[in-house]
Amino acid sequence: MSKIAKIVLLLSLLTAVAVSQTVQAPATNVPAQGAPLKNLSKQQDGHWSPYTAPEFGQEARVHVVQRGDTLWDLARQYLNNPYLWPQIWELNTYITNPHWIYPGDPLLIEQPKLVDRPEVPAEPEVVTEEPVESMGALKRQLPPTKFERKPLDLVVKDIDTYYATDYELYGTGRINQTPMVFDTFIVGAEDENIQRYFDEGEIVYINKGMRQNVSPGQRFSILRSAGEIHNPVTNAFVGYYYLELGTLKVLIAHDDKAIAQVDLATRAVHIGDALVPFQETDKLVRDKARKPQRFIEDNGKSTGNIVYIEDSLSIAGSGNVVYLNLGRNQNVAPGQICTVYRVEGKYKQTDEFYPSNRYDSYKEKVEPGFKAASHAATVKREIPRIILGEVVIIQVFENTAKAKVINARQSLDLGNYIQLQ
User: Do 272 and 307 fall into the same domain?
Assistant: First the structure.
């Protein structure tokens, strides 16, 4: 034997020894292959086998034997090493001869891992208590939580507590006797490159800063000019109307500019809208016990007209905001109630009302004096004023006021009369 052949033989022996040390050796009690097993029987699933396989459960990893399968090949497939085939045989004790496995036989490849079942606390015993008389008593019976620092206060907010909301107080409009002079404006916005108008929470820039006495935390009302208002009855000039778009709050003030955030927006805010210092208005507590005055007489107090309805509406109902041509100079104050009415009779031109007998079929020759007598009566009629509803003053200006309709028996029209109660 040559020297090279001896070296190759030596390396082969060393490799065999290494494999025998790292790979599990076949079981020593493996029976000889012998002849095919006899006494095959038909199993429940229809395949034939000399074995009766146990139930492995749904969580077990099982391989169903296919034609041509051997434990050697299955060990290579599932265990990545054909020499580990005895491990599969040891998991399947019902296989008496590993040389003979039959198509349809289930082979357990991996036993499911058993996990200790967590202990489930027993349900607490139900104890019948006396009925709880109040929410406070219920809160006292609740056990304190782990992170509880102070008792939980339950706050119930009555939406009918006040006559007007922030939306109506700071997001509708105002009428000024003379044109307002503005020098503070929204001149830019953080997202102006992708949108044309801005809403609550968005960042805008204004053209004043610390040198103009603008400081962080300061609030402004956002206004926009919307034209003149005239009395719809007399056509007399009432004032200049300015839309209130909402409010903003200054976050950072530089020397001559500031960064602010819109904190209330009732309409779309645009670059170029004007700013005036915010003035908070006291909220008016609603009198829930008050009943509408249906037949209230003229009391001699100041009268005026509805000169504008919010959003340029032609009629108003309960909840709408309207504007009156009475204000601070006429001793009008927030919280006052005004009667809304219309007048008939001598205050109305002849034949404006609907004649009840215009389409009645009667024969004048039978009652020749009826038509003349009816006409004479209606021409001279004087009837009480017609009460349409009531408004409450929520904000006053120099000669005008903002009011909210609190009840309306009919729709309220532009020009309807109002009188302080």
Answer: no
